[in-house]
Amino acid sequence: QVQLVESGGGLVQAGGSLRLPCTVSGLSGLTFDDVGMGWFRQTPGKKREGVSCISRSGGSRVSADSVKGRFTISRDNAKNTLYLQMGSLKPEDTAMYYCAARSRSFSSSDRASCDGGYVAWGQGTQVTVSS
Fold first, then answer.
1. Going by fewer Cβ within 10 Å, which terminus of the chain is more open, N or C?
2. Tens-of-pLDDT digits for all 131 residues of the chain?
3. In what order do the strands lie in the sheet with 3-6?
4. Hey, which bits of 1-131 come out as E strands?
5. DSSP strand pairing (118-121 vs 81-86)
6. Which of 89, 34, 83 is nearest to 66 (CA)?
């Protein structure tokens, strides 16, 4: 059974930085570089939004306009780990952050997308940015 475990969240002042790792295990029949990955966030009462997503090889990435130039998604396929480097944090970045794995079929094109095909999710890590 696939497991995704996020960590690295916490309380940070505006302008600060955080790095969120997500370790993945239990990809039965698959390897980590078979699947595209993404970071999503959600606040109470709001729809979950895609923050940044990366293709299975890492060669293609997409990010929401709200985080471009501030957040960087990366992956280490040898360590089965996804990362989100967050900088210049703003209070509006406060949310629960989730990592997610895309299905093999959606991942096969090796093109990043946060739209559709995400079938496994972590439990989330809270990021709170104070003003």
1. N
2. 899 999 999 999 999 999 999 999 998 889 999 999 999 999 999 999 999 999 999 999 999 999 999 999 999 999 999 999 999 999 999 999 999 999 999 999 999 999 999 999 999 999 999 99
3. 3-6, 18-25, 81-86, 71-76
4. 3-6, 10-13, 18-25, 37-42, 49-54, 61-63, 71-76, 81-86, 95-102, 118-121, 125-130
5. unpaired
6. 89
